[in-house]
């Protein structure tokens, strides 16, 4: 198998030179390592990889790097590999990839490749999760922080909890519509945001469905229990949360606003159209990966 490891110079990966050394020491396949400074560089580099009969393109970095590489591989013969070196590593954790350079490569030594679903929001692809509401606001504020990690994220969320107000939405899932006020709406293809925060614990990357998670309201008294369930993988059992599934979801809100897509904050319009794209991305997974 021939592999290409893509390291984004602006991805925030710590100890980049050490990581490339670990890759060289740990990988038994034929491979190249390329560093890309801009997102636009990825198009040319991946095209060159396809022309040179590369089998797997590794995203070396965090969720943002994985998102940028993965969306360029959707619908192609190239498989996505992940060397998780970010702060959240949501897709890697869902797939059971160890959060360690050497062990992540060793775990995938059997060269097992599976095909997973992806999704789109207003035509733009994503792999793991997207959402609006409070967690989108937190993602926006977290992106402005100089210090990364779960502690910083939790601090941003705690400071913003009392300032954020739920909004009114109209949501249509596979043709069935409903109106409600919500604090958080998440649409998940994979199970978690990262750091084992499992927003949709039973989500599957291979079932042809998106999991819709709605938190209509939270009080200071219910937050501890909900957060505990979020990290325990039992959020679907909480009375404060509604879980649904569907193939096509449309959400209408009063105005454009914050959203997050695979952990990256952005502004999206008032109408959001989210659709599953079944069996559209090939992924290198650990030899012992079970339920995906």
Short synopsis of the structure:
The chain has 292 residues and is an alpha+beta fold. 27% of the residues lie in helices and 36% in strands.
Which parts are unreliable, with pLDDT below 50 for 5 consecutive residues or more? none
Q: Strand portion, in percent?
A: 35-45%
List the secondary-structure elements in sequence, H or E: EHEHEHEHHEEEHHEEEEHEEEEE
When the domains are counted, the total is 2
Structure classification:
alpha+beta
The multimeric state of the shown protein is: single chain
- The name of the CATH topology of the largest domain is Tumour Suppressor Smad4
Number of helices: 8
* Strand runs, count: 16
**Main sheet?**
10 strands, mixed
Instruction: Indicate the mean pLDDT.
Output: 92
Percent of residues in helices comes to: 25-40%
Highest-level CATH class of the largest domain? Mainly Beta
Q: N-to-C terminal Cα separation, in Å?
A: 23 Å
Radius of gyration: 19 Å
Global outline? globular
Annotated CATH architecture of the largest domain: Sandwich
In words, what does this structure look like?
By secondary structure, this protein is an alpha+beta fold. The protein has two domains: 2-117 and 281-285, 3-Layer(aba) Sandwich (Rossmann fold); 124-277, Sandwich (Tumour Suppressor Smad4). Helices cover 27% and strands 36% of the residues. The protein has helices spanning 16-26, 39-51, 63-73, 90-95, 101-107, 134-143, 150-160, 223-232, and strands spanning 2-8, 30-36, 56-61, 79-84, 112-121, 124-126, 129-133, 167-173, 176-182, 184-188, 210-215, 241-246, 248-252, 257-261, 264-268, 271-285. Strands 1, 2, 3, 4, 5, 6, 8, 9, 13 and 16 form a ten-stranded mixed sheet that branches. Strands 12-11-10-7-14-15 form a six-stranded antiparallel sheet. It is globular, with a radius of gyration of 19 Å. The mean pLDDT is 92.
């Amino acid at each position: 198998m021939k592999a290409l490891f893509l390291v984004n110079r602006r991805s925030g990966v710590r100890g980049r030179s050490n990581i490339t050394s670990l890759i060289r020491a740990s990988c038994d396949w034929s491979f190249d390592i390329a560093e890309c400074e801009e997102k636009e560089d990825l198009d040319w580099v991946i095209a060159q990889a396809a022309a040179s009969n590369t089998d797997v393109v590794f995203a070396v970095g965090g969720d943002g790097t994985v998102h940028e590489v993965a969306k360029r591989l959707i619908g192609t013969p190239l498989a996505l590999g992940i060397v998780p070196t970010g702060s959240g590593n949501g897709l890697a954790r869902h797939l059971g990839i160890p959060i360690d350079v050497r062990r992540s490569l060793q775990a995938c030594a059997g060269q097992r490749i599976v095909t997973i679903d992806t999704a789109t929001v207003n035509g733009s692809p994503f792999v793991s999760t997207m959402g609006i509401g409070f967690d989108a606001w937190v993602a926006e504020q977290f992106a402005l922080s100089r210090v990364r990690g779960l502690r910083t994220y939790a601090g941003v969320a705690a400071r913003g909890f009392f300032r954020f107000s739920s909004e009114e939405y109209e949501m249509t899932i596979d043709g069935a519509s409903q109106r409600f006020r919500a604090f958080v709406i998440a649409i998940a293809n994979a199970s978690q945001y990262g750091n084992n925060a499992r927003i949709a614990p039973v989500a599957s990357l291979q079932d042809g469905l998106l999991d819709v998670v709605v938190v209509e309201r939270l009080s200071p008294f219910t937050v501890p229990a909900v957060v505990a369930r979020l990290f325990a993988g039992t959020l679907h059992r909480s009375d404060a949360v509604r879980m649904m599934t569907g193939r096509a979801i449309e959400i209408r809100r009063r105005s454009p606003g914050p959203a997050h897509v695979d952990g990256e904050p952005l502004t999206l319009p008032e109408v959001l159209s989210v659709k599953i794209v079944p069996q559209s991305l090939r992924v290198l997974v650990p030899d012992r990966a079970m339920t995906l």
